[in-house]
Amino acid sequence: MLYAASGSLLLAYFSWRFIEQPLRDQKRVSNRVFYPVLGVITCLFFGLGVYLHLSKGRLNRCPELAAEMDYTQYTDSARRFKSNVFTQSPNEKILVVGNSFARDFLNCGVECNAFKGKEIVYVEEESANRFADIVITEELGALLTAADKVVVSFDFGLLHISRIKLGVEKLQNHTAARVCILGCKNFGWNNNAVMLLPTSERYKYRTKILHEVIAANEKAKNVFGEKYIDVLSLMDNGDGRVPVFSNDRKFLSQDRQHLTQAGALYVGNLIFRHYRFWNN
Hints:
Blueprint (H helix, E strand, L loop, with lengths): L1 H23 L6 H24 L16 H6 L15 E7 L1 H12 L6 E7 L3 H4 L6 H9 L2 E5 L7 H12 L5 E5 L8 H5 L3 H4 L3 E3 L2 H14 L3 E2 L1 H5 L5 E3 L17 H14 L6
Parallel strand pairs: 1-2, 1-3, 3-4, 4-6
Antiparallel strand pairs: 5-7
């Protein structure tokens, strides 16, 4: 950090001395030259920004990143499970509550064919922090009464766990079903560094889980006990690291939090193979 700060000060001096000062001197650079050049440079950077945004950082430059569907579209495709009621079918009824992480869970079930013979209803809640204030409406109460299992899933940190606990207690008061809390997940800090690795090392690389995610996961395990589905422990071999790529060399997560289609298949297989709750 000290070296970075020293380097920043040095760069600041050179930019002041050799860029800012000359440009302030109208004898060297007149306004008739300065403003047109500034306008051209601004337009170039604006155009570059628009291009990188629309191309999602030139996604197609890496086959690993060029998924069949953009991960945001893939995650949000699980909204098709939203409904206000369960049908009268005899199938086991699963209620899934949460935000985009709950939609990840839904995609896991789809990819692993875990929803066969089950009826799924998704209720969207914006965030873990607001979950404590969830209102049990007549519709939600009916869903809770009819549900055979309830799965709650959010992205969360240490400060959100108590809020999730309050929300779960509200749900549990209105259902005889078992309420499960899906654990947090994380695939490191940045995928760019992984892409710089030699091909021989890249696809078997396991990235470090962020410390704050590990801390939140440990606390959540203690708070929720048997209700908690510990996703991180399923991916971690005991070294605090998780895989970045699937066996077919596809990113498990493009943003290090949400799952790609390959990631949903990988994580889903771990969840539904190791947790008996799904078939009990």
